[in-house]
Design goal:
CATH architecture of the largest domain: 3-Layer(aba) Sandwich
Strand content: 5-15%
Number of helices: 21
Mean pLDDT: 80
Number of strands: 9
CATH topology of the largest domain: Rossmann fold
CATH class of the largest domain: Alpha Beta
Largest sheet: 5 strands, parallel
Order of helices and strands: HHEEHHEEHHEHEHHEHEHEHHHHHHHHHH
């Protein structure tokens, strides 16, 4: 970079500072560097994608006008994210071009058409520029198989995806929970693809891990304000695997972002493997805000839905392998036998395809039984909730659920409460502090005392042992 270019850049920064003010300049432009000036283009770089997307969306024309005040011949700003090892040439990442609006200028030159990729690739590039997590082009509404287990979740997700900027938000946040492999990520990515396809709204898909990484990286690079403002400028924020969100500062930032978006009428969609009340690692304020929206559970896949998923996967495979065929008896066997989740169903089809193509053999029932035998798992036990335990125990001992959660210490309440705590510890994966919180905010030592007391009594008191076993059967049926 020549001395004259450096002097021009200093003057441009001075103009920019006086135009936007010191606070805005420090937040957004202090870490912007000049890389090169070539013909009618100026190449600038910033350290993060969030800064790039935010500046390009909100300050592009202002940066361009400041340059044109120094160099009238400049009509284009190329903004890119620089790597850790700086070089003299612009960063290798494909730049985001900012063209001057020269429709009224007599010397205006036509803007050349950019090379068009597929619609999916274009949307993915745009989403990636916002700092989103990677999107799978297969996970769209068109490939999502709807059944009784997921009808409500699908309808709610479709409602969000079809919304337009300025429309009133019907339910916020939309919170979808389900076990592994039941379609949560598929629905969330389908919302992102469909929402961005309209071109009117910015829909950002982030895993909880990516959210944590982005926040920590922003703190390290002193661009936390840019990170926050970029997220809060999104029209629809989609967060996947919320159960993995860790760290007090990260959770606090997520809470602030969640509140800011909801209060501004922006849509938030969240998925996790359990309902908000069971996310014991999250702050109470976050759980409360999540529970205040629409909470939808995606149930275990029924046999009809599993068969529909299998047929859909076979059709998708046949698009690339026209001769691939799975007979109906084989599909029926797979739908009946593979009950764990949708990913196992897809894995089964992939195995049959590989075996058929590599060995040049048709798919038969014998082959299927041999190839997928490790995917035929025993039926998972019913997932028992603390609320179910409280309800069944209250009914058994003729007390109310509010009695179990209260501070009352009469004998007819203390024993049922201790039994309920014991069952919560033995039949669920909840920790002692979480169980205590769900029983009226009690300390974990109180829960531990109750568990040990009932453990000791059931070995001596036959009547109590029979009552506890009866409660277990009611909960597991």
């Amino acid at each position: 970079m020549t001395n004259s270019e450096q002097e021009r850049w200093s003057r441009v920064k001075g103009r920019l500072r006086s135009t936007v003010g010191e606070d805005v300049y420090t937040s957004w432009f202090a870490r912007m560097d000049l890389e090169a000036v070539q013909d009618e283009s100026v190449h600038l770089s910033v350290p993060t994608r969030f800064l790039k997307s935010w500046i390009q969306a909100h300050y592009a024309e202002r940066v361009l006008s400041c340059w044109q005040a120094e160099m009238p011949e400049v009509h284009r700003i190329d903004l890119s994210v620089r790597t850790a090892m700086r070089c003299a040439t612009p960063a290798k990442e494909a730049p985001v071009a900012v063209e001057a609006r020269r429709a009224e200028r007599s010397d205006a030159k036509p803007v050349s058409n950019e090379v068009r990729t597929s619609a999916a690739a274009s949307l993915a590039t745009s989403h990636d520029a916002l700092g989103g997590s990677p999107l799978d082009p297969r996970l769209t509404f068109a490939s999502f198989v709807v059944g009784r287990a997921n009808t409500l979740a699908h309808a709610a997700a479709r409602q969000v995806a079809d919304g337009r900027r300025g429309d009133p938000v019907m339910f916020n946040p939309l919170y979808i929970h389900a076990g592994v492999g039941l379609g949560k990520t598929h629905l969330l990515q389908a919302v992102t693809w469909a929402g961005n396809a309209g071109g009117e709204r910015k829909v950002l898909y982030l895993t909880a891990e990516k959210f944590m990484y982005g926040f920590v990286a922003a703190l390290k690079s002193q661009t936390a304000l840019a990170f926050k403002e970029a997220l809060r400028g999104i029209d629809v924020l989609v967060i996947d695997d919320l159960q993995f969100l860790q760290g007090k500062s990260t959770q606090a930032e997520f809470c602030h972002t969640l509140n800011a978006l909801i209060d501004a009428g922006r849509q938030v969609v969240i998925a996790a493997d359990r309902p908000p009340s069971d996310l014991e690692s999250l702050d109470d304020r976050v759980r409360s805000r999540l529970a205040g929206g629409l909470v939808v559970e995606m149930a275990t896949l029924g046999e009809d839905l599993r068969l529909g998923i299998l047929k859909s996967r076979v059709a998708a495979a046949r698009a690339h392998h026209a001769s691939f065929d799975v007979p109906e008896p084989v599909l029926d066997y797979l739908a009946r036998s593979i009950t764990h989740n949708g990913r196992d169903l897809e894995g089964a089809i992939n195995r049959l395809l590989a075996h058929s193509k590599l060995n040049n053999q048709p798919v038969t029932l014998d082959m299927a039984e041999r190839e997928v035998r490790d995917l035929v798992r025993p039926q998972e036990p019913k997932r028992i909730k603390i609320e179910d335990i409280q309800r069944v125990v209250a009914r058994q001992y003729n007390v109310s659920r509010s009695d179990l959660l209260s501070s009352r210490r009469t004998a007819n309440v203390v024993r049922p409460r201790q039994v309920a705590m014991y069952l919560a510890k033995t039949l669920t994966l909840r920790s002692l502090p979480e169980i205590g919180r769900r029983f009226g905010g009690r300390d974990h030592t109180t829960v531990l005392h109750a568990v040990r007391k009932i453990e000791a009594l059931v070995g001596k008191d036959i009547t109590l042992n029979d009552e506890v076993e009866s409660l277990k059967r009611q909960l597991q049926d």
